[in-house]
Amino acid sequence: MAMKPHGKSIVSSDYDDKVVFFKDLSLGHHESQLRFRLIHFWEAWNPLKKTLIGMEMLLIDEKGTLIQGFVSPGRIKKYLPDMKRGSVYKLTNFYGSRNKTVFRVADHTVTVSFSWNSELAVLRDCHIPFDEDSFRFHSYEEFQANCDLKGDLYDVVGHMKLVNGQSIVEAPVLDEVEIAKARRVLIHIQSHDGPVMKLYLWDQAARDFCKKFKSYERTPTVLLVTTVNTKTLGGTLALTSMSSSRVFMDYDVQPTIDYFAWLGANPHIAEQVNAEIVTKRETMTIEEIFSYIKQETAKDAFFECTATIDDVVHGSSWYYISCSGCHSKVSKGPTSLICTNNKCEKVNVSGVAQYLSKISVYDNSDQAVFVLLGDAGRELTGKPASELVRSYFEANGNEGVNHEAPVPEALISTIGQKHKFCVKVTEHNFSGKTRSLTVTKILPLDTPPATESSEVNETTVASEEKFINHVGSAEGSKRTCDGTTLEEAKRLKRGD
């Protein structure tokens, strides 16, 4: 296909006097002809009912005007075999319907809807140039202003800082198996010299990203993603791909080529922002955290929440016995303790008491149950769980082997205290399996919001959360100190 110097391709087309340009298109039935390039098409689904709404399209005519197209589910089989992205078509007999108000991919107020007698055919014998593509870019400020409005879907172009937590300068390695399982890729992207944004690519967009990323001999730098939705995730602006999203990199299209050239002329921009401090934990009330959890697009996130401790929840143990190496739960073997984590390389396991305490808290908006794990419990009481358990059994050496240490005074004395809690919400919250919120850290009341990078070194909490999942959450079975476990508990030393 021949190319004009300005980037438009020459196509052949049937000539027709009744051609209507997109800019002149009105509502209602039309027997005239449209000529356009089919830029992209995709299936539109109802995410709640899991039903197919139809097939949507992005079209551009010879004047460079974009418009959205639509084919109802019952007519998709009729037209889909002849549809090819990038090809140029003529369409006769169609209906101009009102464009939807949410998630629009074009500015035009009219949508080209295929009707019962629509005829679609490839253009032939006409030397008219059509643009290959067209983009609608937004800056960080524009995305921020339209966040959560479910309005038009705009495009973003910028340079990548992190890919799934890996620095772009260190040639990230993409695990396609893990990405397929998670169904997403998380990218930190900076557009020119603006703030760095989180960009979530889902399903097909994630697969397209992996394919393109791996196709480059050198690690690509520039990324363009079309029709992204803006959401508030974890209290910060995030961009998420949609079914209509397409992915381009360094030399794929003219905007990425232009951006790559700009970045080369401004090398200091790539070094300007530390990708590890681009997002902050936002302060939220308990009510706002629960509201976030209910959002359809909610993902793992950290929040800061100031709340008052109302009580220590009774009916379940406030600690568990963990592996001294990886902090996973241990079980009793024939002669020693055995770590339940198959990846743990520690052979001679020593049992260490770790916090697994539930506290009831409240603020001016709602009540909640917080689960204290590891260092968070020590930060609240001032003492590690191992010391409190050891002190109890040293003072009560004649307790039976099936006895467990009761809730210590160090925990009970915190009732009535107000603290700033760093809490983490996870898939277990989104799935409704638990309303309990995991506390990863406790801060002084006057501490400013911390950067997300301060959450990176949460190895202990992560392993303890795996234990919670293993036993079914904090309400799990009563922890007893019998046999070897009792002896280990009595020998626990601070910091072991």
Describe the protein's topology.
Elements: E1 9-11, E2 28-46, E3 51-60, E4 66-71, H1 76-79, E5 88-98, E6 110-122, E7 128-130, H2 140-145, E8 154-163, E9 166-167, H3 176-182, E10 184-190, E11 196-202, H4 203-215, E12 222-233, E13 236-240, E14 247-249, H5 254-265, H6 267-270, E15 282-283, H7 286-293, E16 301-312, E17 319-323, E18 330-332, E19 337-339, E20 351-362, E21 367-373, H8 375-381, H9 385-395, H10 409-412, E22 418-425, H11 427-430, E23 437-443, H12 459-471, H13 484-491
Parallel strand pairs: 4-6, 11-13, 15-16, 21-23
Antiparallel strand pairs: 1-7, 2-3, 2-5, 3-4, 5-6, 8-9, 8-10, 8-12, 10-11, 12-13, 12-14, 16-20, 16-22, 17-20, 18-19, 20-21, 22-23
Provide an overview of this structure.
- The protein is an alpha+beta fold and 496 residues long.
- The chain contains 13 helices and 23 strands.
- A 5-stranded mixed beta barrel has the order 2-3-4-6-5. A 5-stranded mixed beta barrel has the order 8-10-11-13-12. Strands 16-20-21-23-22 form a 5-stranded mixed beta barrel, surrounded by 5 helices.
- The longest helix has 13 residues, at 203-215.
- The protein is elongated and about 95 Å long.
- Mean pLDDT is 81; it is low at 1-15, 274-279 and 449-496.
- Belongs to the replication factor A protein 1 family.
- Keywords: DNA-binding, Metal-binding, Zinc, Zinc-finger.
- This is Replication factor A C-terminal domain-containing protein.
- It comes from Brassica rapa subsp. trilocularis.
- Residues 302-447 form the Replication factor A C-terminal domain.
